[in-house]
Amino acid sequence: MIQLEEIHKSFGDTHVLRGVSLSIERGEVVCIIGPSGSGKSTLLRCVNYLEQPEKGRILIDGQNVYRDVVGGKIKNYPMRQITATRQKVGMVFQQFNLFPHLSALQNVMEAPVQVKRMKRADAEHKARSLLADVGLADKADQYPEELSGGQQQRVAIARALAMEPDVMLFDEATSALDPELVGEVLEIMRQLAVEGMTMVVVTHEMGFARQVADRVIFMDHGMIVEEGPPQAIFETPREERTRDFLRLVQAA
Amino acid sequence: MERPVFDWELARESWPALFEGLKLTVELTFIVIAISLVLGVFVALARLSKHRSLRIVTGAYVDFMRATPLLLQLIYLYFVLPAFGIRLEPFIAAVVGLSLNYSAYLSEVYRSGIQAIPRGQLDAAAALGMSPALSMRRIVLPQAIRIVIPTLGNYFVALFKDTSLASALTLRELLFSGQIIITRTYDYFTIYTMVLFMYFLVGYPSLVFVRYLEKRARSGYRRRRPTRTPVPVQPT
Prior knowledge:
The structure holds two protein chains of two kinds.
Chain A: E1 2-11, E2 14-24, E3 29-33, H1 40-47, E4 55-60, E5 63-64, E6 67-70, E7 73-76, H2 79-87, E8 89-92, H3 104-114, H4 120-133, H5 149-161, E9 167-171, H6 179-194, E10 198-202, H7 206-212, E11 215-220, E12 223-228, H8 230-235, H9 240-251
Parallel strand pairs in A: 3-10, 3-11, 8-9, 9-10
Antiparallel strand pairs in A: 1-2, 1-4, 4-5, 6-7, 11-12
Helix pairs in contact in A: 3-4, 3-5, 4-5, 5-6
Chain B: H1 8-47, H2 52-67, H3 70-80, H4 90-115, H5 119-127, H6 132-162, H7 174-185, H8 188-217
Helix pairs in contact in B: 1-2, 1-4, 1-7, 1-8, 2-4, 3-4, 4-6, 5-6, 6-8, 7-8
């Protein structure tokens, strides 16, 4: 469904992604793990083009979706086409990034109404049902700053789901949460996986990766070091660097 | 030299004319507020535009307005433009001059507000499929404007006082209305004291209101009224 081919991305002099290729099947749950600075978040942000790589192709269902090479030069597609693709790719951020000036309900309704031109009544109905799905039916009228981190992140998940995406990207969705609030967010993510959502999850939660992922990718220094089923990565990692990393996180 | 004495009789006589002047001052202030509130947003957006030429033109405009005296800008509009066949009424010249000047300043205020919105807000909007224009209108501007409301308020108090510069264009706002009476009576003390007092009469409450806005701006986003918690049923 999603293919990244030979992605290169630099920030200044730092070569963050050094030719990463990745393919994700429909319905698959892929967890990307690795030390901080390994490029996993940047890779994820390439999928919805929040980061524009210097080199490489981003394909969805076999098609270039954001740009093409014309006469040897990369040319972005028109903004309308880029936004159309992004509507199909939901994303959840480490810092939630809820819109602070909108209530939980309005956060979830905003994109369906403004982007998809859905009728307000329909959008509200859908938003309420999504908020109920993440256990926040009674928080609909509250503003983000009145909610706990875990509640905010659940609203953010509902907001992304309101666009009915084909795939959901999670960028360290639990890293900014107090430890006691991590579980409620992971539980929602696990449910989504069970329901068959295609998911790409950048995470430090090894337990989640082990239980929920179909495939685990270990990244380091802007490259994919090793990938495979969680069993293989966690029990019998082939690469030295994978073993070192797992030893470090599991010691913690 | 004789000590000046406040002439109550003159004060009573002059009040209606001065009050007319105050009304014009307030009217001028509100018209310029309305224009520069809107124009300032567009100038700010142009300065943040992806089109280089638009950024350069608006940047030059803002710098020019900020680097030259407002009084001279007004004088130029009223006394120099007629040489080029553009003759403006004092009131129109004052509205145009003050609006151009304040739009430049307010655009800087808006720009700082827009730039204060965290990158994550833009990321979230983009990830939902919003175009840059839509996310500016629905996500960034509403938050940015809220941040800058107290600053805007302070500029409007300043504007209220700056309208007195239009007296140089023979516009009969509050200050010039006073000056007209003075040319007849030579009673600087009584008239200027009244004019001062009348500016204060409007300026001070405005200042208090701006302070209230500043206090409110710090309180964050919350529901206006807390939802009433259901009263638990008392066991009998």
